[in-house]
Design a protein that fits this description.
Blueprint (H helix, E strand, L loop, with lengths): L3 E2 L9 E5 L1 H9 L7 E6 L3 E11 L4 E6 L1 H18 L4 E7 L3 H13 L4 E6 L14 H15 L6 E2 L3 E2 H10 L24 E6 L6 E2 L1 H4 L14 E6 L7 H9 L3 E3 L8 H17 L1
Parallel strand pairs: 1-3, 6-7, 6-12, 7-8, 7-9, 10-12, 10-13, 11-13
Antiparallel strand pairs: 2-5, 3-4, 4-5
Length: 285
């Protein structure tokens, strides 16, 4: 389901005025007219049902009105439905930085999959200068917003500043992304944390040694003895050149479980999407 992602909340009268490029999206892409319903995702992850109450093509403005009765009466039910229809596992992607175009694709796909946090990692095999493209925060903001609007994701995906692996691991182990103010969007990060639920840590590795099946890495196999599924998962994906042996050993030392998928050779952008889908399928079903 397509949605409109708003950076602002409705005013005290329950009205939301849309202009500029967002007017073009609502009017020419969604083709909204007066009386049409329009789902709107607002800061905080809530999905509001709104009605188009006014269209001013000359001024290029659309006014949306929150369906107050439904929002007031059915807010809990709507929230539960939104959670049930989306990923239930809080997920973070540690992505060793590939070429800029591939990183853009990875960010778009991760957003559509409902990944909460994307932490770009400057690895030994990261090509010189690739991390500089991530400094164009406005471009990645647009990519994330467009992906959320297209996919209907209620997860407010955040992308962080590029980090060396050691610093990225410190960020993860701190357990509270809300304390970090270096996300590219400059917004508060998602409230869910790794400290609030059992967390799985996985590194996708292109070689077979020191690896295990995904179910075992997630603690889901019968011999693991876990009574509770992980409520969060962080998974690391290499760049075009993969992950160096030293980086791989560091991840293992910090509690990551290595997984090797018995598939064809995957490109880094394919591996990120493949891993996200496999992990969500295992944990959310």
């Amino acid at each position: 389901m397509r949605q409109f992602v708003s950076a602002a909340l409705p005013n005290s009268k329950g009205l939301l005025e849309i202009a500029g490029k967002d007017f073009h999206y609502l009017r020419n892409v969604l083709r909204l007219q007066v009386g049409d319903m329009a789902p709107v995702s607002v800061p905080g992850g809530r999905l509001l049902q709104t009605t188009v109450c006014r269209v001013d093509d000359a001024a290029k403005k659309i006014t949306l009105q929150v369906c107050a009765a439904r929002e007031q009466d059915d807010s809990q039910e709507s929230s539960a439905a939104a959670v049930a229809s989306g990923p239930r596992t809080f997920m973070t992607l540690l992505q060793f930085i590939p070429k800029p175009q591939k990183m853009e694709l990875i960010v778009r796909q991760a957003t559509e999959c409902g990944i909460a946090n994307i932490v770009p990692v400057i690895g030994e095999y990261t090509q010189a200068g690739s991390e500089k493209a991530l400094q164009k925060s406005d471009r990645f903001e647009r990519i994330i917003r467009e992906a959320r609007q297209q996919s209907g994701s209620q997860v407010e995906t955040k992308i962080f500043e590029p980090q060396k692996l050691e610093r990225a691991l410190e960020l993860i182990e701190g357990g509270d992304f809300g304390q970090e103010q270096n996300s590219l969007q400059g917004q508060e990060a998602a409230a869910a944390t790794f400290s609030s639920a059992p967390a799985a840590k996985i590194v996708l590795y292109e070689r077979g040694e020191k690896t295990m099946p995904l179910s075992a890495a997630l603690g889901l196999s019968a011999d693991c003895g876990n009574k509770e599924k992980p409520g969060a998962c962080v998974f690391a994906i290499g760049s075009e050149g993969g992950i160096s042996p030293a980086e791989f050993e560091l991840l293992l030392e910090r509690g990551f479980k290595a997984v090797h998928f018995n598939t064809n050779i995957l490109r880094c952008e394919t591996a990120a999407l493949y891993a996200a889908a496999a992990i969500q399928s295992a944990l959310d079903n």
